[in-house]
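In this supplementary section we document a worked example of the pipeline. Step one takes a protein sequence of length 428 as its only input; no multiple sequence alignment statistics are reported here. Step two produces a three-dimensional model, which step three serialises into structure tokens for compact storage. The input and output of this example are shown verbatim.
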Amino acid sequence: MAPKRHQDRRRFLRGATYVLALPFLPSLSGAAGARPSSGKPRPKRLVCVGTQLGFYKPEFFTAGEGDTPRLIRPLVDAGLSDAFTTISGLDHKGPTGNGHQLVYTLYTGHVVPSVSLDQYVAPTLGKGTRYESLQLCCGEAQQKASLAFTKSGVPLPVTLRPSALFARVFGAGSVELKRQAYLIESGRSLLDELVEDARLVSGRASPEDRRRLDEYFTSVRAVEGKLERRRDWLDKPFPVPPEGLELPAEENVDGSYLLENEDLMWDLMALAIQNDSTRVVSLTIPITDRTLIMDGRLMSEGYHRLSHHGNKPEKIQGLLSVEERHMRGAARFLKALHDTPDPAGGTMLESTVTLIGSAMGDAAAHRRRSFPLLVAGGGFKHKGHVPCGTTSVTNTMACDLYVTVLQQLGFDTEVFSTSQSDLNSVLT
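The serialised model returned by step three reads:
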């Protein structure tokens, strides 16, 4: 039996091959003219992002009132000044050995096998969505690339290829990746097969929802276009190195394309949340020894080498150009949620807690102290910057932040992993 047009707040376009989930459209949800409630319901989504080479903290944390660090500027330029808080002075107070070997602990707090924050909430928040959670990585995965761990401490596999994530989000479970690849390579769009249903839906929508629908379709087509441009290179092998050339011990085949893949992952994450394919996502921005391609050109040094800058200005500038690209993607993702209404009221940014950070406090020295951390959206009372480990905010455990996140998401708990308290007094 075909689903009723107004049986719930989810809407779909249906073709012979595809079923495409749409974002919330108030004028087509329930009775005619219905709108989201005006209140601010409890957040119901969690996004956990981690960079395995950290951030350059002098340009991540503010130096004082009126200062906008370079890595925070993309969020400010996107009009999100009141939607995020950076938090300094927190870490896991755990082993201080080689920081690279422990970056996976960002959302677990423990070196011993333990559940990650995203998997703690996934069974509850993920009910009723196509995917209880998504685990992503935007480059060739090295050891311990996953940030997501089950209750028994088993790392969950990550999706590496944006094309594979695209097929998962828009294939409705019935379309194989080969079919999606055919459409991309032939220059067609999955929307082409759904044009008639799209026309009918658009005809019944309000002017505001037609605009919203057009923006959503434009985003889908834009991602398809990026995938089409990337496909040739994804499937081409690298040239064979000259005989006798010594290769890096941890070389990644796809490492050079980290930034291109990352851009696509940010866009696809936004689409997956907008159409409610999932409510829990983790994204790893991994370690790579490869020299990155930026704006079509190879950089002068590899990402890993740049992170070991030795305070040399030219290396710091190269590193910042990479990290700024991370934050531009984050800004684009958060702005997409900011501009999308939530069916229960407010915006999707207000109902989505996004954490961005690293368990690498200083990649140049492999130090794991004072992580770079940022929390965005989620209905928090954002402060711009919170300096922890001070006389005004004495917290020092990163998991104190996670307790506040869990409570904001509706979980009745006062402890998570290595927490000693919470950050409710400054964020809620």
